[in-house]
Amino acid sequence: MSTRHPVSLQIYDRNGMPEHTPIWDRARSINTVIDAFARGGTLLDPDGVDVHLAELADKAACSLLRDRWKDDFPVAAYGELLCTIAALRSLLGYSPTPTAVEVFDWARQQKRRTAAAIDGPVQDVAVQFINGPYRGVILTYPGEAIHPQARPAGLITLPIEWGDDTVPGRGEAQYARSSDEPTSDGLWRYRLAEDVPEGARPHITVPDREDGRA
Description:
The chain is built from four helices and six strands. The protein is of the alpha+beta class. α2 (49-67) packs antiparallel against α3.
């Protein structure tokens, strides 16, 4: 025998509409997250959960942008991890972080912004950032095709943030091309051209959200 509604603490009126929303205990949910991380050897306090999850999202996004050329399990795991963190942050009421699809969208936005500044034909090249907030990240960027070997811009600027995740500082990191030739594996290497604030991290945005940190 079936009932009209599943058994729960929710109360419905005769039209099937909920009469009230069950009380959600946010503090208890945060403590559940703290307990889960403690089982893995990471000790957090309630004020540190937001920043820790945001840092995990940054690491997963940068690893994805470094290893996306590989078709194996780690790349799939980064995508699942990003979705899990995004869902968990939403449930806890924190600002959004991107999924793998949104990380790739962000990467394409950086590419389009750079291409718009080049006057003439372009050709895609792969660039890698070897230090700073984007250390290890590999992105495709437009290079000037007028050279015998397409060459990316001498300077590349990427968005960064720092400080408390709830009210972060925002700015940019400027990277300079480290040589006039790519490496043997076809990568153009870039180093930080100037100092960035202590604790600076990538600012990979969630599309169509002006209030999100990620």
